[in-house]
Description:
The chain is mainly alpha-helical. It folds into 2 domains: 11-76, Winged helix-like DNA-binding domain superfamily/Winged helix DNA-binding domain (Arc Repressor Mutant, subunit A); 79-118. Helix content is 60%, strand content 7%. It contains 5 helices and 2 strands, in the order H-H-H-E-E-H-H. The chain has helices spanning 11-25, 37-44, 48-60, 78-102, 107-118; strands spanning 64-67, 71-74. Helix 1 packs across helix 3. It is elongated and about 55 Å long. The two termini are 27 Å apart.
Amino acid sequence: MDWEFKKGVPIYIQIIEKIEFDLLSGKYKVGEKLPSVRELAMEANVNPNTMQKAFSEMERMELIFTERTSGRYVTTDQTKIDALKKELSKKYVDEFFDTLHSLGFDDNEILNAVNTKCKGEE
Length: 122
């Protein structure tokens, strides 16, 4: 997932969402060292202070931690990763249903479409 920022949402929030996605997709493994603030800021083309704010918030959320003098690491607490996975799945399912409801689909039509997709049917 590339660093693409949307208007109307603070950049540091979007950075957190991107790193959360990277954690769950396996780009960053449990306990793995993260790139430095400066490295990620350059990669994302953002101010290092913005990246630092995102990292600080992720530390508060206990998704990452700092080892003094050696950098930041992904949490080793699998329950934090599992909770994040559950939270994001709920968010995406809610968005999916909200979008289809706004297009006029009812719950049964949505569930039928999901079942069809899961069975690999067209």
